[in-house]
Amino acid sequence: MAGTTADTIFRQQLLAMARPELNALRMENYTRPQRRLIDEERVRRARAQPNSPPANNTIQQEPQQQHHQHQTTTGSSAGASGSGQSKRKPKRRETPKIHYMFEKYHKKIEAQVQGILFSSVDREGDAEWETNIIGEFNCSNRRCKGRWHSGKIFTLIRKYNRADGQLGYNAQVYSQRCLDCDSLGVMNIDEKIYMERVVRRLKIWKGEPVEDLPDIYKKTDEHEEELCEGSIT
User: 72 and 113 in contact (C-beta within 8 Å)?
Assistant: First the structure.
């Protein structure tokens, strides 16, 4: 109860702040619950003013797995002297999320498990399963070059019973924070491992036979649980 009251008071303090003051808050000075409230308030204000620069200058596009590629603009070969060249508009930036759902993999999962439907609704499931997957992160703060690999990306798979007999499901994959600046990371998950975990759990819920998961040995950075937005309980 005391924690809830403290969160309410802190949220009211954030609401009273001017946007520059809110954006200037240093995450390392706050507790994990307070960091989440700060993120939520920044996201709320960024959405309310879509044409304004976001709170922590984050990158929208998914990171490349190995190298950053720099694109150059060349002049037109159809008699252009250079003066008529158009400048590329900078890509929009947005605040990253605390967790993600990867509906784009549903078709591939559906090919392995029949009678399932993806649910994008974020609510408690009739059954839930906690697991970890593998992936990498780039820090969302453009002033920081933080990058790390993780073998413990917390994933919550949820089951929803349906009246039509099909099995509804989703999987929330939780982000992690940068060790250097505490900003949220932009994740790039291992598709194979993600699908393997989700498919296996759906088959178990449907009463279908499954094989044991293979042992995976992949070098990753040391796990920092305090920087994770979710972890197995």
Answer: no
Please say whether the beta carbons of 174 and 230 come within 8 A.
Answer: yes
- The pLDDT-based confidence of 49 (bands split at 50, 70, 90) is low
- Find out whether 190 and 134 touch, Cβ atoms under 8 Å: yes
**Predicted local distance difference test score (pLDDT) of residue 71:** 40
Burial call 132-142: b when 16+ CB within 10 Å, e when fewer: bbbbbbbbbbe
pLDDT score recorded for residue 43: 73
Which residues, including other chains, have CB under 8 Å from residue 48's CB and lie 6 or more apart? none
Strands (E), 14-166: 99-101, 116-118, 127-139, 147-161
Residues 9-26 pLDDT 10s: 888 888 888 877 877 887
Q: Which residue has tokens 């309980």?
A: 233
Given a contact cutoff of 8 angstroms between Cβ atoms, the answer to whether 158 and 125 are in contact is: yes
Dig out the tokens for 151 from the structure.
């073998």
**Is 60 exceeded by the pLDDT of residue 194?**
yes
Cα separation, 1 vs 202, in Å, equals 36
Residue type (1 letter), 219 = K
Query: What is the spatial distance between Cα 18 and Cα 224, in angstroms, rounded to a whole number?
Result: 33
